[in-house]
Design a protein that fits this description.
This is Acetyl-coenzyme A synthetase. This protein is an alpha/beta fold and about 675 residues long. Among the domains are: about 150 residues, Rossmann fold (3-Layer(aba) Sandwich), CATH 3.40.50; about 110 residues, GMP Synthetase, Chain A, domain 3, CATH 3.30.300.30. Helix content is about 30%, strand content about 20%. The chain is built from 20 helices and 29 strands. The strands form 9 sheets. It has a 7-stranded mixed sheet, with helices on both faces. A 5-stranded parallel sheet has the order 7-6-8-11-12, sandwiched between helices. A 4-stranded antiparallel sheet has the order 21-22-23-24. Strand 9 and strand 10 form a beta hairpin. The N terminus and C terminus are likely disordered. Bound molecules: adenosine-5'-triphosphate and magnesium ion. The site of adenosine-5'-triphosphate (ATP) has 25 residues, from strand 20, strand 23 and strand 24. The site of magnesium ion has 3 residues, from loops.
């Protein structure tokens, strides 16, 4: 893209410190390489003719009703148009065309309910249900362009609901089923939705947990008058309050609906969904994605990153309420006609081996999950997965945060038998699909690094003046060329879109994440720019210090923040969760002092004295969003003795009380 003269908004010079030097590499197994779908020439093809490369992917992976003739139109930058004169339908691509190709009996979804019920859904089943649901939505007056909010647990119906919306050209906005009535209300109001699809409840930790009451409450709130109907899936059978005329049972609506439905063919740039970001740093933004480019990159990355084969059984553990669930549960895997797992519940219900049991049962071959889950499994011990046959696994993936090298090595050794490639995939709600990652079967992987842009994607790490940093340097991650699955804006707020992503470095997309390049030019993500600490003029990011702490035997999890300090400007404050017996040791003042000293020395030794935490606070839990990301801004409030800020997107609101109460008794404060 054209890069206008660069401006600097932040005068202070220099990028971020590069502290951690991880040198282990793991080339893929020769047998894996020999059988891989793609080789390194994929990178050459993409760089020889980037737009031609994307046009080829769009033609090969997607079925178009009207073929496109234009690839990228950047004339309204920073809002891109991809494949704009083509028409298609996302649900047709995800379902019908596989049935037409004779693969109707192929399993699309193995569903595992938390209470132990299971269900096998073929592409033919999916086609019938999606067509019925599309007819049902139309019968309720939902048409092309109308917004539908989906507030459901992880059910087959959730996938069907999303696809039914896509089929009629009604953009969906999935709101995570764990969010409160108020979070739901504000999203319904912002999207001006005409329909809400929900369930009576879902199973969570062995008990039915109601959902419908939150919808009822949300709809009494401001800005929700646009909602005409609520469609309710019966999952738990629990008693459910009913508003006659507004509420409709899903099964009733589908039962009377026809199994034939002609997809509504839409332009490539027709909105497919709005999704609110997870809210780690502040007020969630309604990220808008459209159809053709998004679908192309979701399908393409799902295929190349994981080296997808026809007989793979794929399991992405993300909830459909997150972008990962959109791209790697719904649109990527189904567009590729694959088989996948959908699990309703939590990893420890009814026991801590539940995931591994599911992998053994369905011979899962690709597992895609988040570092927070991996650290939890590490905490639970190697003996849990050791009880199951995990030999079907051939590729492992990670997403959501930087994966600490320690957790990466554990994932590979204990889950991957020391042989499976691990793909650490960096991307965002805004990017729509994977952007930076090793490719299974091609890249020699490095624990903790997302490494290289996907073929067809252009990224760089720049300093404050937007100059690329040299190898070994740290700075800010930017995307330097438009990409097919990029957001087309923030719903209803073009100015906020331009301000948030395009004003920091003109002509470059600013991701908001710190990053560095190692000596080979590989990219390492360092944490969010909002979380950078400035200690005596050194700009330190969170990831490396946290990884150094996690690499110590006694630490299960760690989060670091900068707190104002009279002498150094800011000081590093670390919050750590200790492993079992060490937590007991730290319960006495002497024990705690000893542990703190050990951890400080360890950080100094691993990455240098400048990164040594000034204070170490031993805590029982860390505040996380519902997608498992640590909310450091809340910890900063604690470290600076302020009232804790907005915590509405926190998974468990009581965690902050737990943390402050523990510290209030005098523990940890030095
Ligand atoms: P908000 O933007 O509202 O604060 P969020 O950024 O947490 O929410 P997401 O879009 O779900 O919402 O998360 C994207 C962010 O997650 C990235 O910008 C990055 O900080 C982090 N991330 C995702 N994958 C990786 C990865 N593999 N390595 C490092 N960081 C990652
Ligand atoms: Mg973000």
């Amino acid at each position: 893209m054209e890069v206008p003269p660069l401006t600097t908004q932040q005068p202070e010079a220099g990028g971020l410190e590069n502290l951690l030097h991880e040198t282990r590499t793991f080339p893929p197994d020769p047998a894996f390489v020999a059988a891989a779908n793609y080789g390194p020439s994929l990178y050459d093809d993409a760089s020889a003719d980037r737009l031609g490369f994307w046009a080829k992917q769009a033609r090969e992976l997607i079925s178009w009703r009207t073929p496109f003739t234009q690839t990228l139109d950047w004339s309204d930058a920073p809002v891109a148009r991809w494949f704009a004169d083509g028409t298609l339908n996302a649900a047709y691509n995800a379902v019908d065309r596989h049935v037409e190709a004779g693969r109707g009996d192929h399993v699309a979804i193995h569903f595992e309910g938390e209470p132990g019920d299971s269900r096998t859904v073929t592409y033919a089943d999916l086609q019938r249900d999606v067509a019925r649901a599309a007819n049902a939505l139309a019968a309720l007056g939902v048409g092309k362009g109308d917004r539908v909010v989906i507030y459901l647990p992880m059910l087959v119906e959730s996938v069907v609901a999303m696809l039914a919306c896509a089929r009629i050209g009604a953009p969906h906005s999935v709101v995570f089923g764990g969010f409160s009535a108020d979070a739901l209300r504000s999203r319904i109001a912002d999207a001006e939705a005409s329909l809400v699809i929900t369930a009576d409840g879902g199973y969570r930790r062995g008990v039915p947990s109601a959902l419908k009451p939150a919808v009822d409450e949300a709809l009494t709130g401001e800005g929700t008058e646009t909602v005409k109907h609520v469609l309710v899936v019966r999952r738990t059978g629990q008693e459910t309050a009913w508003t006659e005329g507004r509420d409709v049972w899903w099964h009733d609506a589908l039962e009377s609906a026809d199994t034939f439905h002609e997809p509504v063919w839409v332009d490539a740039e027709h909105p497919l969904f709005i999704l609110y970001t997870s809210g780690t740093t502040g007020k969630p933004k309604g990220i808008l994605h459209t159809t053709g480019g998004y679908l192309t990159q979701a399908a393409y990355t799902h295929r190349v990153v994981f080296d997808l084969k026809d007989d793979d059984v794929f399991w992405c553990t993300a909830d459909i309420g997150w972008v990962t669930g959109h791209s790697y549960v719904v649109y990527g895997p189904l567009t590729n006609g694959g088989t996948q797992i959908l699990y309703e519940g939590t990893p420890d219900t009814p026991h801590r081996g539940r995931w591994w049991e599911i992998i053994e049962k369905h011979k899962v071959s690709i597992l895609y999950t988040a570092p927070t889950a991996i650290r939890t499994f590490m905490k639970w011990g190697d003996d849990v997965p050791a009880q199951y046959d995990l030999t079907s696994l051939r590729v492992l993936g990670s997403v959501g945060e930087s994966i600490n090298p320690e957790a990466w090595i554990w994932y590979r050794r204990v889950i991957g038998r020391d042989t499976t490639p691990i793909v650490d995939t960096w991307w965002q709600t805004e990017t729509g699909a994977i952007m930076i990652t090793p490719l299974a079967g091609i890249t020699a992987t490095k624990p903790g690094s997302a490494q290289v842009p996907v073929p067809g994607i252009s990224a760089d790490v720049v300093d404050d003046e937007a100059h690329p940093v040299p190898n070994g340097g740290g700075g800010y991650l930017v995307l330097t060329e438009p990409w097919p699955a990029m957001l087309r804006g923030i719903w209803g707020d073009r100015q906020r879109y331009e301000d948030t992503y395009w004003s920091r470095f003109r002509g470059l997309y600013f991701a908001g994440d710190g990053a560095k390049k190692d000596e080979d030019g590989d990219i390492w993500l360092l944490g969010r720019v909002d979380d950078v600490m400035n200690v005596s003029g050194h700009r330190l990011s969170t990831t490396e210090i946290e990884s150094a702490l996690v690499s110590h035997d006694v630490v299960a999890e760690a989060a670091v923040v900068g707190a104002s300090d009279d002498t150094t400007g800011q000081a590093v404050v670390a919050f750590v969760i200790l492993l079992g017996e060490h937590a007991e040791r730290a319960a006495t003042p002497e024990g705690r002092t000893a542990v703190e000293a050990e951890l400080r020395d360890h950080v100094a030794k691993e990455i240098g004295p400048i990164a040594k935490p000034k204070r170490i606070l031993v805590v029982p839990e860390l505040p996380k969003t519902r997608s498992g990301k640590i909310m450091r801004r809340l910890l900063r409030d604690v470290a600076e003795n302020r009232a804790v800020g907005d915590s509405t997107t926190l998974a468990d609101a009581s965690v902050m009380d737990l943390i402050t109460a523990g510290l209030g008794t005098g523990s940890g404060r030095s």
